[in-house]
Design a protein that fits this description.
Elements (H helix, E strand, L loop, with lengths): L1 E12 L2 E12 L3 E5 L6 H8 L7 E6 L12 E4 L11 H11 L4 H14 L15 H12 L6 E5 L7 H14 L4 E6 L2 H7 L2 E6 L2 E7 H8 L3 E6 L3 H9 L4 E7 L2 E6 L2 H14 L4 E7 L3 H10 L1
Parallel strand pairs: 3-7, 3-8, 5-6, 6-7
Antiparallel strand pairs: 1-2, 1-4, 8-9, 10-12, 10-13, 11-12
Helix pairs in contact: 2-3, 4-5
InterPro entries: AAA+_ATPase, ABC_transporter-like_ATP-bd, ABC_transporter-like_CS, DrrA1/2-like_C, P-loop_NTPase
GO molecular function: ATP binding; ATP hydrolysis activity
Organism: Lentibacillus amyloliquefaciens
Length: 302
C-alpha cells in the first residue's frame, strides 16, 4: 500500500526554489532515508510533507486521502533541534504532549509509560529532562512524536548533533522501531542511511536525483573494484596490474592501490595468479562494494 506520494512538490523562498518539482512515493512498513548535503532542501521537504508549511505548488497524497489534506494527525514529527521543558520529567513531558494531542489524561499516562519503556527511558521517567544526555533527549523526542500513534514517523537529522554513544543509541532504536512504524528521516551522514534504511531518496539542490531500494541502487551504480596493498613501490605494481586483461582503471590513494575491472571473477583469478607466480609482496586484497557515497556522487554527476 502506498502510504505517501508527492507529485511535482515545489517550495519557493525569495524567488528561489528550495524544493524543486520533487516527485516520489513509498509504501508503508519501510524505513526511508532522505539524504543530501547541507542546504539540499531536506528540512523544507520534511516540513512540507508533514503539513508544517504549505507547498508553493505540487500535491501530497497520504494514505489515499484527498490531495493536500491535513494529515498531521497521522504523522509524528521530530525537528532537528527539539526543545523541551528542562524542569519537567520525561514522563510529565510525554503526558503533557499527549494532552496537546487531545488524548485523555488516563490514555496520555498509559501512552507515556509504554513509550518510555519502548525507547529505553523507563528508569529515567521521573528524572528532570535537564539532566538527560543528548541521546536520551533525542529518544524522548522520538517518543513524543509517537504519542498519538501516527502512521508515519518523520525525523529531521536525528543523530547529527549527538556524540558517538548517543548516536548509537538512536540508530539502534530506529532499527527496532522500523518493524512497527514507517519512518522517513533526513541525514547528511551517508553511513547512517546505509545502516538503517530500506530505501533512499537522494536530494541535491532541491531535486530528487535518484530513488529506490538499497539493493536496486547498488546494482544500478555498482562498480567492480578491488583494493590492494603491497610492500614496496606501488607504482611498479600499478603498472603490472594495468597490463592484465580485465583491469580497466587503477589509482593510488592513501597507501592502497585501487583497480576497477570489467569481470570480477576473471580479474580476481588473474591478479592472484600473477601475485603467486611472480611472488608479489601482496599484503592485503579486498573486493569493495559500491559505497553510498560513491552512489551519491555518481547520481549527482550524471
Amino acid at each position: 500500500m502506498i502510504l505517501l506520494s508527492a507529485d511535482n512538490l515545489t517550495k519557493i523562498y525569495d524567488r528561489q526554489p528550495v524544493v524543486d518539482r520533487v516527485s516520489f512515493k513509498f509504501e508503508s512498513g519501510k524505513c526511508i532515508a532522505l539524504i543530501g548535503p547541507n542546504g539540499a532542501g531536506k528540512t523544507t521537504t520534511l516540513r512540507t510533507l508533514s503539513g508544517l508549511i504549505k507547498p508553493t505548488s505540487g500535491t501530497i497524497t497520504f494514505a489515499g486521502k484527498k490531495q493536500n489534506a491535513d494529515n498531521r494527525e497521522s504523522i509524528g514529527y521530530l525537528p532537528q533541534h527539539p526543545v523541551f521543558f528542562k524542569w519537567m520529567s520525561g514522563k510529565e513531558f510525554l503526558v503533557y504532549v499527549g494532552r496537546l494531542a487531545h488524548l485523555s489524561k488516563q490514555k496520555s499516562v498509559k501512552r507515556a509509560e509504554k513509550l518510555l519503556e519502548r525507547v529505553g527511558l523507563s528508569e529515567s521517567a521521573n528524572k528532570r529532562i535537564g539532566k538527560y544526555s543528548g541521546g536520551m533527549k533525542q529518544r524522548l523526542g522520538i517518543a513524543q512524536a509517537m504519542i498519538h500513534q501516527p502512521k508515519l514517523l518523520m525525523l529531521d537529522e536525528p543523530v547529527s548533533s549527538l556524540d558517538p554513544i548517543g548516536r548509537r543509541e538512536v540508530l539502534t532504536l530506529m532499527e527496532e522501531l522500523k518493524n512497527d512504524i514507517t519512518i522517513l528521516f533526513s541525514t547528511h551522514i551517508l553511513s547512517d542511511a546505509d545502516e538503517v534504511s530500506d530505501e533512499l531518496l537522494l536530494l541535491h539542490e532541491g531535486r530528487i536525483m535518484e530513488s529506490g531500494s538499497m539493493t536496486d541502487l547498488r546494482e544500478r551504480y555498482q562498480t567492480a573494484k578491488i583494493e590492494l596493498s603491497f610492500e614496496g613501490d606501488l607504482i611498479v605494481y600499478r603498472e603490472k596490474l594495468n597490463a592484465l586483461k580485465h583491469v580497466t582503471n587503477s589509482w593510488i590513494d592513501r597507501g592502497y592501490l585501487h583497480v576497477t575491472v570489467s569481470d570480477m571473477t576473471a580479474a580476481r583469478h588473474d591478479i592472484l595468479a600473477a601475485a603467486s607466480a611472480e611472488e608479489w609482496a601482496l599484503t592485503s586484497f579486498s573486493i569493495n562494494r559500491t559505497s553510498l557515497e560513491d552512489m551519491f556522487m555518481k547520481a549527482v554527476k550524471s
